[in-house]
Amino acid sequence: MKRIAVLTSGGDAPGMNAAIRAIVRKGIYDGLEVYGINYGYAGMVAGDIHRLTVDDVGDTISRGGTILYSARYPEFKDLEGQKKGIEQLKKFGIEGLIVIGGDGSYRGGAALTKLGFPTIGIPGTIDNDIVGTEYTLGFDTAINTVLDSVDKIRDTATSHVRTFIIEVMGRNAGDIALWAGIGSGAESIVIPEIDFRMEEVVKEIRAGRERGKKHTIIMLAEGVMQGTEFAEKLKEYDNFHTRVTVLGHVQRGGSPSARDRVLGSLFGYNAVQLLEEGKGGLCVGIVGSELAYSDISETLNTKRDVPYLSLYQINKEISF
Ligand code: F6P
Question: How would you classify this enzyme at the top EC level (predicted)?
């Protein structure tokens, strides 16, 4: 293999640049030509492809976002788009592809591999909702961003003796709420993976107040419901002086944490090695501190078990 390409697709995530940098540098170190595809699969189909040099990825490891831009491109599920994409890659003599993104990106990668174009997936999403890895790129930075915000919110919550519902991202997954919840000492964590009862949340708020706590933090995953809806339901029980904060896209930005930079470098490096070994249809991940490989199609057909779901019960027992 002489030429490989990389793209980022779906929601951006801190650490994507570290992975791109590793791919470019490792590829060039090994004598390959490395190409960047702008705007994910949309750019691939449009032929928005350019060669990357060692310098192009200089000073990027500390930057959030993705220097290759990203896009959601549902049209890529059509065979026609996939064939057009491969045609564009072939025009540049590209023989292998690395996609960095979430399950939508993996679906594209699996389809390309099935059509005979070797593709490797790198899990990149703040949601942490990918099978085959315990941590995705961007998750660690995102939860640290949430913690920074909650630390600030707690100041004002205490001053006014208020209850804050913090709505965090994660799409259908509760990982961000779970980790940021336990990390911020939230009195309640509400995630899609575990049924909740409002009576239980009310009990948790009251227990804190009875102990003299001046603030209450409820960490709510967006996959359960919106923060405003949750506040309405809570109001039916009592007036807890509730305020809602929707952290939104602030969770997707910012300089990647040390962990995301290291993971990005590790994933990028190993993805290149897999292509060099003539492998496709695989994705890289981290399981039990070890690098892991999985079949992309299998990951897409496997129900995900949330890693460390036991944190939910731990939080109940230590954050009352
Ligand atoms: O998948 C990443 C994510 O940030 C989710 O947590 C969120 O639900 C979604 O993307 C938001 O998508 P968009 O940026 O397209 O509004």
Answer: transferase
Domain extent for 123: 3-138+256-300
Q: Is residue 309 part of a domain?
A: no
Tracing tokens 């405003």 back to the chain, one arrives at 228
Ligand 1 mutation target, pool 9, 72, 128, 171, most atoms within 8 A of CB: 171
Whether this prediction's pTM lies above 0.90 is answered by: yes
Segment 136-160, tens digit of pLDDT: 999 999 999 999 999 999 999 999 9
Per the CB < 8 A criterion, the answer to whether 120 and 284 are in contact is yes
313 has binding-site annotation: no
Annotation marks residue 48 as catalytic: no
**CATH number, domain at 160?**
3.40.50.460
Number of domains in the chain: 2
ipTM tops 0.95 = yes
Same domain, residue pair 264 and 120: yes
Rounded distance from Cα 218 to ligand 1 centre (Å): 21
Q: Are residues 48 and 160 in the same domain?
A: no
Give burial (CB, 10 Å; 0-12/13-18/19+) of 91: exposed
Q: Do 74 and 145 fall within a single domain?
A: no
